[in-house]
Design a protein that fits this description.
Layout: E1 3-7, H1 16-31, E2 35-38, H2 44-55, E3 60-65, H3 68-71, E4 80-84, H4 87-97, E5 100-103, H5 108-123, E6 130-133, H6 140-151, H7 157-160, E7 163-166, H8 169-178, H9 188-193
Parallel strand pairs: 1-2, 1-5, 2-3, 3-4, 5-6, 6-7
The chain binds adenosine monophosphate (AMP).
Adenosine monophosphate binds next to helix 4 and helix 5.
């Protein structure tokens, strides 16, 4: 594993613990000699994790669409900043450059990006690990919702189990590094019933 894609808020969140989360995860990436791939902005947790990685002597690679260079304030102090035409190019490039995907606390954008990679794994478009850094129980409601979808027969337990959940950055990175891809046959759910 060489690079980890981190999805996180373009805001700081209401509790200072979220900024600390971004700093802790950034430091853990550098300690593990892993590059950060992220959305390329200077705002919110995105900016905090990038600044932390750069200050600790690591590699931070940003990918930002033209339209957002001003809004998210493209970070020009990175190892690499790629300015791409649109969101589709951003997401594709971030995915291609990364060996694993992690969501830190964030809003709708973070959740969208996390779910894209989680569902692409389910469909077999990639075999890379996907995890959430569940600091201060931030992702507990999301985990509960996913448990609910399993109980209600919309998702396989084995697939739910592929989501790596940890509240400690070093433990989370360890899980990503040890991850063995499990090809869950999503369509078997349907075949079982016909
Ligand atoms: P948020 O979690 O809403 O603060 O957004 C975090 C990051 O996700 C920001 O860099 C947004 O530009 C990005 N984002 C927002 N919406 C989307 C989307 N539909 N697809 C991919 N990224 C998005």
């Amino acid at each position: 594993m060489k690079a980890v894609c981190v999805y996180c808020g373009s805001s700081n969140g209401a509790n200072p613990i979220y900024a600390e989360t971004a700093r802790a995860f950034g430091r853990a990436l550098v300690d593990a000699k892993l590059a950060l791939v992220y959305g390329g902005g200077k705002v919110g947790l995105m900016g905090i994790i990038a600044d932390t990685v750069m200050a600790a002597g690591g590699r931070a690679i940003g990918v930002i669409p033209e339209l957002l260079v001003d809004k998210e304030i493209g970070h020009h102090g990175l190892t690499e900043l790629h300015v791409v035409p649109d969101m589709h190019h951003r997401k594709k490039m971030m995915a291609d450059l990364s060996d694993a995907f992690v969501a830190l606390p964030g809003g709708a954008g973070t959740l969208e990006e996390l779910f894209e990679m989680y569902t692409w794994a389910q469909l077999g478009y990639h075999r890379k690990p996907v995890g959430v850094f569940n600091i201060a129980g931030f992702y507990d409601p999301l985990i509960a919702m996913l448990e609910h979808t399993v109980r209600e027969g919309f998702m396989r337990r084995a697939y739910f189990d592929t989501l790596q959940v940890e509240s400690d950055p070093v433990a989370l990175i360890g899980k990503l590094q040890r991850y063995q891809p499990l090809l869950v046959d999503k369509w078997a759910l349907h075949r079982d019933k016909v």
